[in-house]
């Protein structure tokens, strides 16, 4: 029996590590053709080679989601290489969290540029393609930080909830043939803490990760679950957190 993933073309931003890397490996293992997007060319090229070595299909496209032209090149590469684009996983994100009193305005702007505008640029490039094809699936990585707002995470949570609202609006506008899924991870073992510029906030998040974080494979499986559903089934919201997370 073939899965609902086999043969699909899936572009993944933030594919150089963590959730993006785990998702690419799992989907490729299940027969998807994956288009790997990230800024670190060495990482995604090595990942593409690893997938190819295991018998899968992958291509690496250096992508900075802050640049719409890069998202355009990502979508174009998928279509030129594989003839279509079935799924866009907008997973790239940063979390330079801090107290609002710290006035780290540059960090706020960076989160808006990557976490919100990066997703919007992906929608702008993929939506016309999906309309033309008559099918397509957007998957957006959010965060449980957007479900329970805590100090130091106001702006980060705001960006994730902005994408939550955008995703719901997109779902309602999408019609009968396009699908939209949001996935909200809790503490996951990723490099996300490395983007935190405030040392106290970084150490606090890292301590939480060290204590209870689960593998990014858990999120990859959730994304795969949404993708593999029949075309008339749209899995809209998934929350995946460690059992120990409050």
TrEMBL record:
It comes from the Bacteria. InterPro entries: NAD(P)-bd_dom_sf, Sc_DH/Rdtase_CS, SDR_fam. Keywords: Oxidoreductase. Transmembrane segments: none annotated. It holds the Pfam family adh_short. PANTHER family: DEHYDROGENASE/REDUCTASE SDR FAMILY MEMBER 11, DEHYDROGENASE_REDUCTASE SDR FAMILY MEMBER 11. Belongs to the short-chain dehydrogenases/reductases (SDR) family. This is SDR family oxidoreductase.
């Amino acid at each position: 029996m073939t899965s609902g993933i086999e043969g699909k073309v899936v572009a993944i931003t933030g594919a150089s590590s963590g959730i993006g890397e785990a998702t690419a490996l799992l989907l490729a293992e299940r027969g998807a053709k994956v288009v790997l997007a990230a800024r670190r060319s060495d990482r995604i090229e090595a990942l593409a080679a690893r997938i190819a070595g295991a018998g899968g299909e992958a291509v690496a496209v250096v992508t900075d989601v802050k640049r719409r032209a890069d998202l355009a090149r990502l979508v174009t590469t998928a279509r030129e290489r594989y003839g279509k684009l079935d799924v866009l996983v907008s997973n790239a994100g940063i979390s330079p969290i801090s107290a609002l009193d710290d006035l780290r305005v540059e960090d706020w702007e960076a989160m808006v540029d990557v976490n919100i505008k990066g997703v919007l640029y992906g929608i702008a490039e993929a939506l016309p393609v999906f309309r033309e094809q008559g099918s397509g699936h957007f998957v957006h990585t959010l965060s449980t930080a957007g479900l329970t707002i805590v100090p130091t995470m106001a702006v980060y949570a705001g960006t994730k909830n902005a994408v939550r609202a955008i995703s719901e609006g997109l779902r309602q506008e999408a019609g009968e043939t396009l699908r939209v899924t949001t996935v909200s991870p809790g503490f996951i073992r990723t490099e996300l803490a490395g983007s935190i510029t405030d040392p106290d906030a970084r150490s606090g998040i890292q301590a939480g990760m060290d204590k209870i974080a689960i593998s990014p494979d858990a999120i990859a499986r959730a994304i795969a679950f949404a993708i593999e559903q029949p075309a008339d089934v749209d899995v809209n919201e998934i929350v995946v957190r460690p059992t120990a997370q409050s």
